[in-house]
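Let's inspect one such protein example.
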Amino acid sequence: MSEPISQPEPLARLALVFKKYEQVTVLLSGGLDSSFVLWACTQFLPKDCIKAVTCYSATTPRHELARAIKTAEILGVEHIVLSSPEMEDEDFCRNDDLRCYYCKRSRLSLITQTPGYNWGTLLDGTHLDDLKDYRPGMKAAQEFGISSPLLEAGLDRAAIESLAIEYQLPFPDRPAESCLATRIKTGQRLDADLMAQLDQLEDAVRTLGIALVRARWNDGEIRLEVRSEDFPVIMDNREEITNIARNRGFSAISLDLCGYGSRSGFSKEMNE
């Protein structure tokens, strides 16, 4: 167990929550919230009582899986990586408003039915701000008895970011992430090859220095979403980006002038 640390009020509340846990497994996506939960585990529990588990599939951005692996490595926690079967679920591939519920249900079924592990209490990164959004995946988490220590301790995203900076954690500046299914307009069938192409396009745009990018697909058209402050980079490199898109089979690409977060008409984006 790590040496005791001085506890500002939010962390003290979190410490009280962790007192009831003995053996835990964190559902680690690689984003800030679940990474912070895993770090908190290392502060309040012995390392041999902590695991992390990450599910991946065609919906998982490659860099997000790499982040999850790196986070567990940095924190020195046992990490189990499972190939998840949600793309075999017709309910999920239909891509309706309950898509996230079907995905979470499939992944939690996989985890809980995987033999050979003492999972203990499964923890996720849900926090106060998540209650403001439409998150059907939370229903599946409740059905499987997942615990949310950040929510129980009353922490919101601002408190998590503040603590991550204060304790010099290696992931406070990670941008919001979501699965690749959110790139395809709700109601249009999910396709593994298409999501792989969108992932490659986003990776290529990131090499230009743009940390947060979404390549939204709507019936053959790609619409790029980036933060408004990154518009000049996109425009300065529009020819290169267009060529990258065409090399991946996309003939039409545009820039969303509303900027990241508008998502008009697209799948609701659930981070973490």
The beta strands are 24-27, 50-56, 78-83, 121-123, 213-218, 221-226, 252-255. The chain has eleven helices and seven strands. The chain has a mean pLDDT of 91. The chain has two domains: 9-166, 180-255.
